[in-house]
Specification:
about 70 residues; 5-stranded mixed sheet; about 45% strand; mainly beta; about 0% helix; elongated
Length: about 70
């Protein structure tokens, strides 16, 4: 039996989410964008890829520069 390729999300609204795939992707996305629509303004979060040798990869919430510079 082959061990699943696990993708974890750290931070933001997807914090704690774990996706499991049968195999590692040939070319994983460097950034995942999560758009939250809730009847108000659109809220967008970006997650950047980081590899985790133990289980696959991890997407960490990108810290946006709040100064606007």
């Amino acid at each position: 039996m082959t061990q699943a390729y696990v993708v974890r999300f750290v931070g933001g609204p997807l914090d704690g989410r774990v996706d499991s795939h049968a195999k590692a992707p040939d070319a994983p996305k460097q950034t995942v964008t999560h758009v939250h629509l809730h009847g108000g303004p659109k809220i967008v979060h970006h997650y950047d890829l980081q590899y985790a040798v133990e289980y696959g990869c991890e997407y960490r919430l990108r810290v946006e520069d709040e100064s606007g510079l």
